[in-house]
Amino acid sequence: MAEHSRSNEVVFRLPRTPRSARRARALLHAMLGSWGVSQDTAADAELVLSELVTNALRVPVPSDRQVGVRIARSVGDGLLRLEVSDAGAGHPEVREPGDGETDGRGLFLVRSLAHRWGVERRAAGIGKTVYAELKAPDLMAEPEAREVAAVMVRVGQQVRVWGDWRAVLGIRNEQYAAGGPAVVLDLDEGPALRVHAAEPVLVREACQP
After folding, report:
1. Which CATH class is domain 2-135?
2. Tens-digit pLDDT profile for residues 43-86
């Protein structure tokens, strides 16, 4: 479930369940679409993030330890950065599996697809962060009004709902009964808007007329 987002990054945590890799891919797919990333780059990024999350889920730690994910872009550098954090010790290493092996290809794929990758100790808390940076020269700067995943909406922006622009006064993160992440936007007029975290919404900065 998402924790916070800004225009150039989103940070969220995932439970240690098999569905978490799929949820991470869905949120990344929605974000990259709003950032104008090409389909080829998006496909590589989704594969890399899926492998990083899957590896983190396999780390032998208590089941209540969540997996942290950060997705960030640098428009000036044309780079997309994916970070996955877990509470486990050790330093993951790339294996080059043989032709008949079906496991152990995760970091091999990450190394093949990423511009650079590495492992860092977490600045706060225990564990490590595995990161990968991909070249994405088609990253776009934000237009005046744009469509973004609901998880990326920020307090102070305006969203287009019910045929009008409404200011976002507060944001809450919830979970659907079926298990998917939801975002609840408290608006300056009308009822709160509850949508799936990956659902696209039209936003603009509040200072625009």
Report:
1. alpha beta
2. 999 999 999 999 999 888 887 788 999 999 988 889 999 999 99
The CATH T-level fold of domain 145-205 is SH3 type barrels. (2.30.30)
Domain boundaries, given as residue ranges, for the chain: 2-135, 145-205
Q: What is the amino acid identity at position 147?
A: E
Partners of residue 83 on adjacent β-strands: 70, 131
Q: What is the DSSP letter of 39?
A: H
Percent with pLDDT over 70 in the chain: 88
Chain segment 87-115, per-residue pLDDT in tens: 887 777 776 665 554 455 678 889 999 99
Q: What is the per-residue pLDDT for 191?
A: 92
149-169 pLDDT, tens digit per residue, is: 999 999 989 999 888 889 999
